[in-house]
Amino acid sequence: MKPDILELQPHDLQFNFELKKQSSCAVQMINKTNQHVAFKIKTTNPKKYCVRPNTGVIDPNSSCDFTVTMQAQKVAPPDMICRDKFLVQSTFVSEGTKEEDVTSETFAKEDGKLVDEKRLKVILIPTPDSPESSPTNGTMKIVHSNESRELKDDTIQKDSSQPKVDGGMEVFKVEGESVEATRREDSVIEKEAVKRNKETVKRNEELVERNEEPVERNEEPVKRNEEPVKQSQEFMKRNEEFVQINDTEELVLAKNVEEMKLKVKELEVKLNEAKATILHLSEEKRLATQEKHFLQGELDLLRSKRHRAQVGFPLLYVFMVALVSLYLGYLLHH
Question: Does domain 6-266 sit in CATH 2.60.40.10?
Answer without folding.
Answer: yes
